[in-house]
Amino acid sequence: MSKKMMAYIESQPDVWHSALKALSGQVRKAALSMNRGQLPRRVVLLGSGSSYHAACAVRDLIQPRTDVEFFAQVPTRLLLPDAPKPGVVYWAVSQSGKSTSTQTAVEALCARGAEVWTVTSDPASPLGQCGAGHIEIPCGEESVGPKTKGMTTTILTLWALALAVADREALDRECETLLPAFDAARENLALSRTWAENCRELLSGANCLTIVAEGPALPLAREGALKLLETLYVPASAWEFEEYLHGVNNIIGPGQMHLFLLRSGPNRERMERLIAYCRARGAVCLTIDCGADRPGVTDTRLALRCTGAPQTLAYEALLPFQVLSAVVSAAKGIECDKPRYPDFYAALNTKTDAGK
After folding, report:
1. 3-state secondary structure of 288
2. Using CA atoms, how far apart are residues 271 and 269, in angstroms rounded to an integer?
3. What pTM was computed for the model?
4. Alpha-carbon distance 199 to 339, whole Å?
5. Residue 58 and residue 68: Cα distance in Å, rounded?
6. Tens digit of pLDDT for each residue in 176-206?
């Protein structure tokens, strides 16, 4: 079970290395063509599900370093302009290129004369054929529902493209900062596999999961919650640390399962105190630590080898969620390589090829 998904997960270090080489020229060329070669005033990233999480992760990384305004939005909440607004560029993101909601938004934007670039893994997909230009996500084929290598490579693609637009001179230098995380990924995958095996029985019995994170880890925690929900078939949600403290904390109690995504920073000690508080009141607490002094595994805690840089966090923190999804779904007898409801896309018309 989940053999195909696990193979995609384990292929990621090689995929990232090859993708980084492929992206440099592609994103530079695209950036020179956008907004008639001028720096955009605003970039709106459109996507659903994992694509939206990737857009949020990249927005949080790039916004502090540029005057270009980056916004992430789901297509169904997009406020369509009456006419093109000067300096505004849209990036429509869909790994498969078959999202009907994104396709609808792109068609409406193009009809109004807006500048839209599509970002997919398949240039021949319906979405890939739309807009002013196309940027390929170089992740290769991924024929399972819960996306892993496609998700992380989407983040890599959008990050490189955002840098090429907002800070072109820094692109090559910044790409080099990712290599230590890529090189540590195999060790982190092995640690994640050991940890997942340690706590698989515990997670197999969970009827809901609450994930807590902060800063640039939050979009990744939301993607982690989506992966666990997609594969374990139980409710999973992710909360920003401070938001959790103001109301969500009322769920603390026996039988509640929490997963904390820790990193270095001013909130680390407070999050450690929250973990202790939850445990003292009977909640089950698991921890993924991206700020530990050394990597290691216990029954409830996974410490990864991390660089501490926010731009590498996606290639570190997402791995345990992906591995947990594959290992625990197999322990529950769930075949996550296949859709639970094969007729769902056609019934809800969410993919352009759903009826085929």
Report:
1. strand
2. 5
3. 0.96
4. 25
5. 13
6. 999 999 999 999 999 999 999 999 999 999 9
